[in-house]
Structure formats: C-alpha cells, structure tokens
C-alpha cells in the first residue's frame, strides 16, 4: 500500500489538509486521479487472496477524499453569515468566539476580518477582584485588542463590557489605567448600542462627564451600570453621606432598557470582623418617559433620594412612566423616603413587577405603598424579602401582604391578565378565607408561589365539583419553607407566635389528584409541584429543591406514597428527605447535585413533544435556498 507521501503531488495535499481552502481546478484533477489509484489499491487482492484494507489505508483515502468536500466550496459570504450566528449567540459573549473562528484556517480568518458586523461586540474588559497593579504589558494588550475591534467594526454600533473591582489600596495604583481604558470607550460613545459598566463610584464623574453633551449617545439602547464603593467603619458611617450624582445618560434618546446597581466591597477589620456598609447616596437621573425595562439592586444604606422612587411625588416628577413594561426593584436595608403622593399612579404598560425590598419599609407602610399603584396590564407580580416579620400577631388593623395584593389586583382590574404570583415566604395569609379571597381575584393564574401553606389553607386549592372553581388554569404550585424554620427552637419562639407550616402529605396528594386531568389525551392542568426550602448552613441562600412533575400514564407521580418522609407531616426535615429520595431516583448531571437545581421531567416531556412535531413537519412546498453544491 502506497503512503500519501509517495504520490507526486504530496505538498498540495498536505497544504489543503492543513486549512479549509478549496482546491484549484488543476489540483482537483490531480486529486481525483489520486483517489482512483487509491481505490484500485484498496480493492486489489493480496497474493494469498482478498485482504481487508488496513485502518491506515482507509484513513489515507478518507483524508484525500475530504479535500474535495463541498464544504470547502461554500462562498465566503455564506461563512460570514454563519459566523454571525456564532458571534451573536448570547452564550458566546464571554469566550471570544472571533479568536476561535480565526484559528481554524487562514480562509476563515480572512472571511471574519473583513466582515465588520462581527467585530461590533468588543471583547470584555474584565478586571474584577484585581489583587495587584496592572502592569504596562497588560494595559497595552487591552488597548490594542480594543483598538483592533474598533477599527475592524467600521462605523457599526458596538456592544461592550467593562468590569473593575479591587481593594482600595490596589485601586490607587490602577486608577490611571482604568481611566485610560474608559476614555477609549467614551471616545466612541456615539456608537454605543449596549453598554455594561461596573466601576468604582468615585471615578464615574471624571470618566463619564463627556457623555452629558447632546448627541453623545444617539444609539444607546441598553445600559447596565454598577457602581461599587468600599465599606466604612462605624466612624465613617456616622459622618455626612457622600452624594454621587449620575445624570450622564439622561440625554440618550433611544435608551429603553436600564439596569442600575450599587455594591459594597467588604473590607476586613481587626481583629475578626468584616465591614459591609457604606452610606453613599446615589442620585440617578434617567429619561423615564422612554424607559421600558428598569432593574435595580441597591446595596448601600444611603440609597437614592429621588429617581429611585417607584412612585413619584407628582405627575411631573421625573416625567411619566407610561412605557414601563418591566420593573425589578431590589434594595437591601436602611431607610427610604415614602412619597407624599396620595393619589394612585397608573402604569398602563407594566406587565412584570418584582419588589424585593429588604428592611427598607416597615411591613404595613410597604403594603399601603402598593395600594397607590394601578397596573391594568400586570401579568407577573413578585413581592418578597420584605420586612413583614414585625407585624403584631393580634393587631387586626395592620394590613397583611395578602390584603395589600388583593387591593392592588382589585383596583388595577388585572384579574384576567395576572399569570404568575409570588409572595414572601416568611408570611402567610391571616386565614384560609383571606387566601381564598385573593385567589378568586386571580382566575387566570398559572403559577402560584407562596409560603408553605398550613393544612387547612392548602385545602382551599382542592378542586370540588360542587364549588366555584378556584384557579382553573393553575399549572405550577411552589411552596416555600423560609430559613427561620431551619434554625433552633429557641429562635422559632422568638418569631412572635408564628408556627412553621406543616403539610400533610395526604392533603397535598388530594389537592394534586383533584387537579390532574383524567383524560389521557389531555395535558394535566397542574403540571408541577415545587417544594422549596432555604438552607441555613451558609449566609448565602442555598435552595434545596424537590419537584414533583405530574406526567401522563403510569409515571404520573415520580414519588409513590411509600417514598414520602416517614413522618406524618411534611416539614423542612421531610423536605430534605424527599430531596434525598429524588437524588436516588435520578442521576443528576455532573454527579454532584447542584445547588438550586432540580430534575424537570415536565420540561423533558414538553421537549419530546416539540421534537415529535418536528419529525412530522412536512417541508414539501416550502421555499428553500441552495447554499452549496457537492462536486460529486
């Protein structure tokens, strides 16, 4: 058997095998002749009769054959279009896809380097948790890489990410470097489309001041701005708050999606202590009349005293908010001024509202705050992590969270549109009647996520043919056990009479059975039951998640009755046992059961249905385009 190097044109073959270049017409003729010789040798019997071709011979034949693959004949324009799908795939943002594509072959590198749109997503500048000074070579490499993308992207709009965080001592040596990098971005601010900026708060004015001028941000559509500060000791917290004014983006005419966060970089203190608070006040000014999506996460106790108010003082305070479609508002603790506004405000376009207010308001004030909103288009509502624990148990004049939400739904007229409701896991309804009243106001609800209900409260969800149907469209039921219930008994007694929810498995099973469709041809109305708990082993939330997926047929219940916890009630300990049973029944991806993950059989079932429909898809008569034709 001849080796590849024995042919009279080995260099051409080797060259083509090392890249994705198509062969020339002359090379194609020689390669076809070479293939004929190889085929003849593969089929030639040995002296002792027929002998199967060796693996090496087959590999040689396949290698030569691959040089004639029609993939090599695909036009550059087609490759450039394919590269767009790779580069603009959201999951590829952090892995420099252009660098990977350019390394495949010189042909691919040439196709990518001349296609300007591919270079419009700049490589992220990630300097988070920087522990040492940035050396000149690193600084130079960052600038060169940015300039390469900026030059090759032409005049296209650009997306970029810039992250920096460090200790205060390291920051003093890196300040000049970061300002230089930020100036590179600011110089081309007229091309910004999506900007992600995480920087120290003390440099925001010096770095971003030019953006205030008219016409500097004509294309900016999406902004994610996070400003970090260093934690202060008690003496620093007692001093007058520093005010940081951020009005650099108020003149962006196309800005629609805004995320503004503040974070505190913790500082170790002698002997064994961590400083975690800062009293800086952030004063953000945004073009509210045009904002459609607003998200925020505020960690400093100083907070923001005007633009962050969800409800303005009057109709002209900050402009109307008629275009708001989604609001996610997360603050940790401290004080926040309540607007003096007495009349409700209507947000006619708002479809999603998430409020995670920490200890910002006392519970009763926060609930009354909700009553000032009219949200006729609301589809998703989340109100949790609030300071509801201090409500006196016997004081019936205090409004409950369930009463406040019921008032909001009733006055907004969003009963038919509300699809998802999540309420704080630390508080439940005052009574089963209060729960029933709220749920009757939400007939279109598909996902209910609440604190684990007491047994008599859970009975409300049981479907009864003799009673008006409650939540006829319910698909997902999530019950949560808060972290307080995992602590010691002495701590539980401190919770002013609140008792951990104890769920009878038999009651839960009756509720589930009453909501499963009896027809095998129909998808069950109730699809998932999620039992969620919070581990107290660490300061961070670690969700222990068990999920029951209600499928069709014999597998309608992943956990037969015998696999429930041995106790008569399903409390937090029972939930942990149920999670263990889940792990034994299913082998999780990666071997270790990931925090917060769960086996979603319903998702697999839905995906199977989608794939079956794709298999039955009839493409006859559909329009198509020929991208390339095989030479064979």
UniProtKB/TrEMBL annotation:
Tell me which Gene3D superfamilies the record gives. Ribonuclease Inhibitor
According to UniProt, the name of this protein is F-box domain-containing protein
Looking up InterPro entries in the UniProt record yields: LRR_dom_sf
Query: Which organism is this protein's natural source?
Result: Candolleomyces eurysporus
Q: Could you tell me which SUPFAM superfamilies the record lists for this protein?
A: RNI-like
